[in-house]
Amino acid sequence: MTALEAPGAGWRAWLLTASPRSRLQARLGALYLGWLAFLANPLALAGMAIVLALLATALLAPLLAPGSPYAQDLTQRLLPPSAEHWFGTDELGRDIYTRVIHGGRVTLTIVLLVAIIVAPLGLAIGTAAGYFGGLADTVLMRITDIFLAFPRLILALAFVAALGPGIENAVIAIALTAWPPYARVARAETLTLRESDFISAVRLQGASALRILLRHVMPLCLSSVIIRVALDMAGIILTAAGLGFLGLGAQPPIPEWGAMVSSGREFLLDQWWVATIPGIAIFVVSLGFNLLGDGLRDVLDPKRR
Amino acid sequence: MASGATSDTAGPRAGPTRPAGRGGWSLRAAGLLGSVLLTFFGLLAITFVIGRVVPIDPVLAIVGDRALPAVYARVRQELALDEPLYVQFWIYLSKVLQGDFGTSVITSRPVLEDILRFFPATIELATLATIIGVAVGVPMGVIGATQHGRWPDHLIRVVGLIGYSVPIFWLGLVGLLLFYAKLDWVGGPGRLDVYYEDIVEPVTRLLLIDAALAGEWDVFANAFSHILLPASILGYFSLAYISRMTRSFMLEQLRQEYVTTARAKGLSEARVVWRHALGNVMVPLVTVIALSYASLLEGAVLTETVFAWPGLGRYITDSLFNVDMNAVLGGTIMVGSVFIGLNLLSDMLYRILDPRAR
Asked: What's chain B's average pLDDT?
């Protein structure tokens, strides 16, 4: 024990020092303090555990559930949970456990795709509006406000109606409705940065607006945008699952949780497991992201310290 | 629906930006009106674009694929599809502003008539849900704040978090399974049992009110047993939001000095909390409630599907599957307008109720 603690204590002292020798040390120290605050929050830890478990299941899906999520066996229809089929089987004799595990991949893909579209889009619009100000700001923020003032699911529905159902279109529809808060966050951050000395210094050195935005403004807006992504994940998962449930997201036979709940509706009264178990998966994962997002905000948001 | 629901830093409202505190009341009101009109214009522009993107030929949808070329051409001309886009948009705009959303292909009634027929069911559901959300959520938030950091606070936080995280359609199904199929405490899907249908004359189309007006208490009881479960489930969703916001507003108030003063002069704790602190929280709370009502209109889409509730949400999704774009867009415009209206209302209430905002 003591042998293990000694170097640990050295690291701690180095990280927690009041007079860091380098920028790196200061940054790592701040990160470490945040990590300690995060560790002290059991709910946030639980959230992180759930999210990590989701990542692990998605990565290891073929190992955790070796069978194919599409393999049908009509002699094994609608079997209750048992040692052989942990979560039972559905109306086509597919193993629900396998489908739920592989469904994690689908959910994660949707969430990641939305985040990849939405965060840069919001960041670009928000920083441009904040940096250029004036007419550009007014126009961009008006558009943002217009999108913000809409009911998100209804707008996503209308977009899917236009584009046709399917995972890709669900991702596009959710992304089209999810970017405005990111733009607002990024704009607010940019406004506080715009007049700072280091930006003026870069500008005097002749850097172009594009370079200032990309290299100097956007990196500093990233952390708020990332918190926002973490907080938004649950909402994205629920919207995607809702679209899937309505039959407008992922199409059968893809093992998407929302679509699985929907196809189990018919058998709800007699075979409850078909519809309820995928729903539990949605619930647990979105709870995990909510807990994690809350914890991250408590740690990273200076106003809450 | 759940977007940003977890962030209570967003403040009481997240609608259009408030103009800076310059100018008089009328000037700011004009600015507000301008931004609302602009938002409404944006709504129409987006629905117009969506209507154009649809990979379905609107002419074929009307005349069918065996129509003569001459008929096809005439309908195409009637729909003004040969005009430039801005002219089409202008026509679209003027029609919508006159309440003409076109005709529904499925019901072959004007879309507006359909909307007026289906919307009351949604309003009834969302209103009852909001009542439940306020009646339970506000006390929960107050208790959470007064017991800050102790187990009731944690419990209430977790109950709220579950409300944010649970897929509402799944909760509806589980509720139906438990309370309708197993326990038989509530009515099943739909607004009424079949043998109670068409007894009450539709006056307001809000079934509970119509039944009460007609004195048909059997129908009232049946309708209530049907609406109770979906409204509670929607209400849980709004409760999660309302209790969280109440808690954070109350925490802020309880730190203020007037609370210390009130305690120091010997007022009972209950009076300090429920009268003084809660009284001051009421203003931002009203805006929160208006916003949560708006988000319930949306949450109703999924709930209505689960409970076979003949409301606007189900009208939109049903039309969507039948590629009835007039109905989809009309419904979207309707919900969007109510949404914008509630945003405006919450903003105005905030200004009227809070003397500091004047």
From this structure: 82
Q: How far apart are CA B161 and CA A286, in angstroms?
A: 10
Task: For B35, name the nearest residue in chain A, comparing CA atoms only.
Answer: A142
Distance (Å, whole) CA B271 – CA B268: 5
Tell me the chain A residues in contact with residue B316 when contact means C-beta distances shorter than 8 Å.
154, 157
Residue A282 has pLDDT above 50, yes or no: yes
Q: Half-sphere exposure (CA, 13 Å, Cβ side) for B321?
A: 11
Three-state SS sequence of B94-129: HHHHCCCCCECCCCCCEHHHHHHHHHHHHHHHHHHH
Q: Which of A142, A146, A228, A260 to mutate to test the interface with B (most CBs of B within 10 A)?
A: A146
The position carrying tokens 């009515």 is B187
Higher pLDDT, B349 or B247: B247
Q: Are B111 and B326 in contact, with CB atoms under 8 Å apart?
A: yes
Please say whether the beta carbons of B186 and B203 come within 8 A.
Answer: no
A78-to-A60, A73, A92, A110 alpha-carbon distances in Å = 26, 10, 8, 28
A153 and chain B in contact, CB less than 8 A: yes
CB atoms within 10 A of CB A242: 29
Tell me the count of A-B CB pairs closer than 8 A.
186
- State pLDDT tens for residues A187-221: 988 988 888 888 889 888 988 888 888 888 888 88
Cβ-based contacts of A180 with chain B (< 8 Å) = none
In this structure, which amino acid lies at residue B261?
T
Q: How far apart are CA B44 and CA B52, in angstroms?
A: 12
- CA distances B193 to A138, B40, B99, B199, B218, Å, are 53, 39, 34, 11, 11
* Mean pLDDT value across residues A56-78: 83
Instruction: Say what the ipTM of the complex is.
Output: 0.83
Report the predicted TM-score, pTM, of the whole model to 2 decimal places: 0.84
Instruction: State which H helix or E strand residue B14 sits in.
Output: none
- How close, in Å, is residue B178 to chain A by CA atoms? 9
CA distance A29 to A195: 28
DSSP state for residue A95 in the 8-state scheme = B
> How large a percentage of chain B has pLDDT more than 90?
16
